[in-house]
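Query protein
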Amino acid sequence: MSIAEPSSGRDSLTTDALNSLVHQFSDALCFYRELIQNALDAQSRTIQVELTWNEGLTTIAVSDQGEGMTREIIETELTRLFSSSKENDLTKIGKFGVGFVSVFAIHPQAVVVDTSRDGENWRVLFHADRSYTLVKMDQPFGGTIVRLLKPMTGSEYRDLEARSRDILAYWCKFSEAAITFQGEKVNQPFDLESPVKIQYESRGTEVVAALTHDVTPFYGFYNRGLTLVEGRQQFFPHVMFRLKSYWLEHTISRDNVMQDENFRKALAVVKEAVYKELYPFLLERLHHGETALMGFLPGLLRDPASRPPGLWEAPLFPALGGIRLSARDLVKARKKHGAIYGSALATPVTEALRTPVLQLDHDEAFEDCVRAAVGESPLHAETSLFLCLRPQLSTEERRLEAKLDVLVRSIGHPIRRVFLADFGYPGSCITEEIGVLCEQIKHPNRMPPLAHPLPEDIGKAFLLVNLFHPRVVDALRASRQDIALAVHALYHVLVLAGALPTAAAATTLRRAVSLR
């Protein structure tokens, strides 16, 4: 073993510059990232980080199996700032030759670097004042080992161990080399959590992109698996992504990614992945009936400027009769019919409508999609509309209808006609009603066609009476004995039910008697 001369002293200006570089990162433990970055550049496939504490002295050891360093590399790169052979080499991450000095940010008592290359074995001993001694060693090290020695209490050591685990998990979780911390694996799958995601590779770039409900989605940029920056921003509507590419470089402060021409090239690959793979993948799965994914559509439908190609025309909305409608179809139907209707199943109401009816299954996401497309929720056909089924009336029923019609119009209310109808069709929302006054209907113009159409000049003010309501059945039975009393009683039942306005009983009785 032989000892080389220790490094010479530095002037105050150089010392100030070095101090700035030592504390260049907001977190002192970012030196882990720098050491692992150097190990990756040295082509190491495995990296071990081990912490030990013994009688108040903590040792942090970062070991790799990379190329190691010769004396020339040590003297021209490791110990000389801003001298790096990595410049203009896209296979290397570090571009500034300043990362190693960050090991001094935790104020170690000493830093020991053991390294071997081309038959040379060296130990570099950095002292507390950052001066160093270069020692030639007899035994090879099989790569490079960096050890930091620092006195600590037991509680300080435990805090260091926890923080070290966290920072390695953040910066190095996708590293191309296998990294262990205290013997445990640090690496994680390069992935995202989402039911709709794709993996995409092109031009030295790997992308995982996934749909999210977040308005400001997650993004992450990485080079060879090391984190450059992670954050939240909408690059593409409701898409989160991780991007790993040799095009990407970190800023000198290591807290962001350089947004240069290479950055734009890498981002173009993400755009390819999103528009050629991710969005079409969503449409394909929806087309095959995976309605649980409808929740991703509202945000994509609302903004025409960022809407994925083909989304507006895609047949995504199931309708009764086995057909599927597009958002464009919904807009046309809304414009033509004044509303979009939906129902859980086919009923006489939906069959009477002259517009497609959406297949509703009480899925809020589905209705959100309709709102995003047309600006309003679909109306449930059976609760928004009623259908007048006009059965063939018997002589007795036609007589009661005619007498009640005369009585109601004689009161002075602007009702043009009274009709007996069947309210009990499948899916009816008015089965229990005795009567419906059409001028009280919120949207009388939306009433489906009648089974037996009413006269076109009937207007909106007419009364429909439930032919099979118990009170109407009673009135029909009573009409066989006294039609006047039967009509008078039925009128007041309709008043009490709110289907007709109140009138004096004496007046209605007198007019009813005149109908005999």
Q: What stands out?
A: The two ends are 132 Å apart (CA to CA). The chain has 14 helices and 22 strands. The CA atoms of residues 82 and 97 lie 5 Å apart.
